[in-house]
Amino acid sequence: MTTNDVAKGNVTPRASVSDILLDGLFTGMIGALVVAAWFLVLDVAAGQPLRTPALLGNVLLHGTTGTGIVTIAPLEIAAYTGFHFVAFIVVGVFLSYMMTLFERFPIMFFVLLVLFLCLQAGFFVLDAILGAQMMHQLKPWSVVVGNLLAAAAMAVFLWKRHPSVLARVERLWDDNQ
Q1: Which of 10, 52, 106, 171 has the CB geometry, 3.0–4.6 Å to 5, for a possible disulfide?
Q2: What is the pLDDT of residues 23-80, one digit of tens each?
Q3: Rounded to an integer, what distance in angstroms lies between the CA atom of residue 32 and that of residue 38?
Q4: DSSP letters of 96-116?
Q5: Distance (Å, rounded) from C-alpha 154 to C-alpha 33?
Q6: Hey, how many other C-beta atoms are within 10 angstroms of the C-beta on 34?
């Protein structure tokens, strides 16, 4: 790899660990904020602000949703919000790393697609393991829409940070014909 190749866009320079971690931090924060905002809008529209993080915090701390009545308490909201952001940051760092691989190996597009589908299904599997308690409280379509919004926001951020990726996806399709 020469400097000329990098300048022409033929080769993507390798990202440093700090670049991957910082991109992952921002990617995760963006995803977490989008999902939190989505459910805040739904909760406010239903006349119960912060109901969703209180419900999920109750499940996280106590393992149950009880009788279906959700008490909005600061401890449950804070616990779930912290867990939610840490989980999204971990996913964001992993996606950032995957994106750096994607720049070098375009076939990673399919790995990222399968990863998204697995993460999407993961919530429903987790719910089934917990006895399908959350789906009686949360509507499945709201979870799917929230995840799609977060994935779109995270993808836009990562694509802005890695502009060569879109060109590589186009070439990936060309190479298969």
Answers
A1: 10
A2: 999 999 999 999 999 999 999 999 999 999 998 888 888 876 556 677 889 999 999 9
A3: 10
A4: HHHHHHHHH-TTHHHHHHHHH
A5: 10
A6: 20
